[in-house]
Design goal:
By secondary structure, the chain is an alpha/beta fold. Helix 13 crosses helix 14, helix 18 packs across helix 19 and helix 19 packs antiparallel against helix 20. The longest helix has 22 residues.
């Protein structure tokens, strides 16, 4: 197992030479990661990582889902059952199972990241297999026990300049505050306000979350105005702790404009448990519009990650809970759904809206045209199932002809797998270099312009879109 120094670059020698030159300009630039899911406690406590199964397999549903598709039960991959079930398999057994199924990852994005990490970080030079599983497990475990592989040392080694986490609105952000106050840590780790479960009355536990907001705000649980003010207050709390953005995930990115009286009436019905499904959708759509209004007021960037059918396998969800690999993309629309929001705030210079999708048909049909007109709209990088080499090249072709390069928001790694962050960003930089090199070779772009764009895609664009 080895890494080709020209991996992902064009095969044509002349174009490859240009791509290599472009890539060399950006390969060592710092990583800006404005959207992800790494636990801030990882860097605060700086404890050694566990075994390779704990680090690379258990919590990475990109990996567990594909092995599960081959007929392997999730518990054999270390996924713990929710309650009253057997504990997960021991790390060594999980690693053996993974190595036995290594061939499944050929050609996948997960296989690319894993190969990069195993070779570059751990010096693995053979494909994992049933025969060498124990040897690799012991070698990686020994490496993880060294000081050079503690989270902070890797943070510096990866050259991460900004790392955003994703956080519940009622999180006290104590770990972020402690990390910020620690003079021995020199990185920038920022929270992200993720209010979905507080905006959607159909979300399990919504009423309890509303009560927590009311208690924090010192208002009656039944007060719609108090509820809205509490959300605004928590946003300001996050901003005071370094947050630059809010993150919103929903099936359909629908926005609805309601008068305060109508919104308050639906809020009261929701607290009584009397809302229909359609009414709950209307209320959550109104609250998404309220989040945009608050973004204009407080300056937090609004990001939208819609279009995923969560927990498609009810049996899996019942046994193992969420985030276990059975979330599936859906067709998604933006033009009609976001028009009320863009009618109000689309031309506001203080509003930034980053649109992501897992329905790549929307890149050229909806997202790029919207970003090509509204100054508030930025194109989110290929996300989740689209965060893969061929998908990223299709993305570049789909959006650039309509919106150019400078309506994008830069790359995001969107990961809980800390060790995969550099491989993901490196993949994006190589592919952008390949795309730009093709334009240079076709006489559509001067080399000097391509060099400037390559750097801006990594640095200037995420700084601008996320107000960093």
């Amino acid at each position: 197992m080895r890494l080709d120094p020209d991996r992902l670059l064009p095969t044509d020698p002349a174009t490859r030479g240009v791509a290599r030159r472009l890539y060399e300009r950006v390969a060592e630039l710092p990583i800006i990661s404005p959207h992800g899911h790494v636990d801030p406690g990882l860097l605060l406590h700086n404890l050694p990582f566990g075994d390779p199964a704990e680090l690379l397999i258990r919590r990475d549903h990109y990996i567990t889902r594909l092995i599960h598709a081959a007929g392997v039960p999730l518990e054999r991959l270390g996924v713990a059952e929710r309650a009253n079930g057997a504990g997960p398999a021991p790390g060594r057994e999980v690693w053996r199972t993974f190595c036995e199924h290594w061939h499944l990852f050929a050609g996948t994005a997960s296989g690319y990241w894993l190969t990069s990490g195993l070779v570059e970080l751990f010096g693995v030079d053979r494909d994992p297999s049933a025969e060498n599983a124990d040897e690799l497990f012991d070698m990686i475990t020994a490496t993880l026990a060294t000081d050079e592989f503690r989270p902070r040392a890797l943070f510096e080694r990866f050259a991460i300049e900004v790392l955003a986490t994703t956080d519940d609105p009622m999180d006290d952000l104590a770990e972020h505050a402690a990390l910020h106050a620690d003079p021995s840590f020199h990185g920038r780790v920022i929270p992200t306000f993720r209010p979905d479960a507080y905006l959607d009355p159909a979300s399990p536990g919504w009423a309890e979350r509303v009560a927590a907001l009311a208690e924090w705000n010192g208002c009656a649980v039944s007060s719609y105005r108090g509820y809205v003010d509490a959300l605004a207050g928590r946003r300001l709390y996050f901003r005071e702790h370094g947050a630059v953005s809010t993150d919103h995930a929903m099936v359909v990115p629908r926005t609805v404009e309601l008068g305060e009286g109508d919104a308050a009436a639906l809020f009261a019905q929701a607290l009584r448990g009397e809302l229909s499904a359609a009414e709950a959708t209307t209320f959550s759509g109104h609250m998404l519009l309220e989040m945009a209004r608050m973004s204009v007021a407080d300056g937090l960037v609004m990001t939208i990650h819609p279009g995923v059918y969560r927990n498609h396998s009810s049996a899996t969800f019942g046994r193992f809970g969420p985030d276990t690999g059975n979330d599936i993309p859906l067709r998604t629309g933006y033009v009609e759904e976001l028009r009320p929001l863009l009618e109000r705030y689309g031309n506001d210079p203080d509003f930034h809206l980053v649109l992501f999708t897992v329905d790549e048909t929307t890149f050229s049909r909806e997202i790029a045209p919207l970003a090509g007109f509204y100054p508030s709209v930025y194109i989110g990088a290929p996300w989740w199932f689209l965060d893969a080499p061929d998908s990223i090249l299709r993305f570049r072709a789909a959006v650039t002809e309509t919106a150019g390069f400078y309506r994008g928001a830069g790359f995001i790694d969107d990961t809980r797998a800390f060790l995969s962050i550099p491989a993901r960003h490196d993949m994006s930089r190589r592919l952008d270099s390949a795309f730009l090199a093709r334009l240079v070779g076709e006489g559509r772009l001067e080399l000097a312009a391509a060099e400037r764009i390559a750097v801006d895609l990594v640095d200037a664009l995420p700084r601008k879109a996320f107000k960093l």
